[in-house]
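Supplementary Note 3. Input sequence used for the single-chain structure prediction.
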Amino acid sequence: MEKRIRVGTRASPLALKQVDEIIKLFRLKNIEIKTYNTTGDINRKTPISEIERTDFFTDTIDSALLKDRIDFAVHSAKDLPDELSDGLKIAVITKSIDSSDAIVSKNNLKLKELPLNAKIGASSKRRKQQLKKYRPDFEIIDIRGNIDERLKKFEDYDLDGLIVATCALIRLGLEKKIAEVIPLEILKPHPLQGSLAVVIREDDYETEKLFKK
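The predicted structure, written as discrete structure tokens, is reproduced below.
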């Protein structure tokens, strides 16, 4: 009987879409998907800007990998910590499907068309700083959660705009919500935005073979 290959991921709709993308890209078969809540999924109060470059969104998944509860993990590449836990390594980082940021807005307005003192939802320090540089009048509102949750907060908080990764909206089939793909000279994206990372145990050469192609 063919061995089942266990993959670990976060439980959000976007995370599951990303796993499906990896499965199709590498034509993997006999896959068992295991979902985990990371610290970032449980702790919704700490601003993203305070925990960037840490394992906030990967910790419990990578722990399961080290304990041999899964064979590989799929992460958004930009969520990887600066240093992986001892015993783990990156098997592959995929080409980005789209590295840009996009705005979802009231009345489908572009960034430059938003009213004076517009309230903009954003998460990362990078986005907040660049938005304020472009329009100092913007009131930046810290927004946390998966894409569906952020879109709901956009409505609930009566925001004028919400900044999200274009790739996330594409993967979820929500391209129609994009009012504008923001020009790179205004909002320079994270270098790994849109790419996916597969993490494995350093000594698991059998699993590594799955991603050699």
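Residues 13-25 form the longest helix (13 residues). The helical segments are 13-25, 39-42, 59-66, 125-134, 147-156, 166-171, 205-209.
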